[in-house]
Amino acid sequence: MRTLILSISFALIVPSTAIASELLIITGKETAEKKFNKKKITNIFLRRQLINQHGERWIPVNLASHHPLRKIFSETLLDQYPEELENYWNIKYFQGISPPYVVESQEAMLRFITTTPNAIGYISSCFKNNNVKVIFRIALKSDKTQKCNDLKR
């Protein structure tokens, strides 16, 4: 009984002190495409590459612009803040290309990715589970790491 109480106490303490040290780019387990790099992922999220090698449409997904991980993702991978991309998306919109879908939380991101074929998104390393495939990892600089609990909103 004492071991059980200690295990539960430890489980409740660890998440609050765990640190998100990686940004994980994820897709559904069924995604057949194997080779990803920063340039390819950037092109998918900026909607420069709309179709995968199998002729299927990519469905990029962003967190809401106020989410701290969205800012980290945009700065690290796209080399711009979300606010700086507004003009880019206005131009793309008038060319008939919509920006990525937006979800409010990492939990919603996981649900969307696991239920939508060819969806591609990102989560912190705190949220990784076995229902998604990690296709690219970005180590976060020490000034970009955050406590896992701070990213749960």
Folded structure, characterized:
It is built from 5 helices and 7 strands. The chain is α/β, with parallel strands linked by helices. The chain has one domain: Periplasmic binding protein-like II (D-Maltodextrin-Binding Protein, domain 2, 3-Layer(aba) Sandwich). The strands form 2 sheets. It has a 5-stranded mixed beta sheet with strand order 4-3-5-2-6, sandwiched between helices. The longest helix is centred in the N-terminal third of the chain and has 16 residues. The N terminus is likely disordered.
Brief overview, please?
The chain is an alpha/beta fold and about 150 residues long. The chain has five helices and seven strands. About 20% of the residues are buried.
C-alpha-based Rg, rounded: 17 Å
CATH topology: D-Maltodextrin-Binding Protein, domain 2
Low-confidence stretches: 1-17
- The tally of strands reads 7
In this structure, how is the largest beta sheet organized?
5 strands, mixed
Query: How many domains in all?
Result: 1
Shape: globular
Q: In sequence order, what are the helices and strands, one letter per element? A: HEEHEHHEHEEE
CATH second-level architecture:
3-Layer(aba) Sandwich
The residue fraction in helices comes out at 25-40%
Number of helices: 5
Q: Superfamily at the CATH H level?
A: Periplasmic binding protein-like II
Q: Note the gap between the termini.
A: 33 Å
Q: Provide the CATH top-level class.
A: Alpha Beta
Fill in the keyword field for this structure:
153 residues, alpha/beta, D-Maltodextrin-Binding Protein, domain 2, 5 helices, 22% strand, disordered N terminus
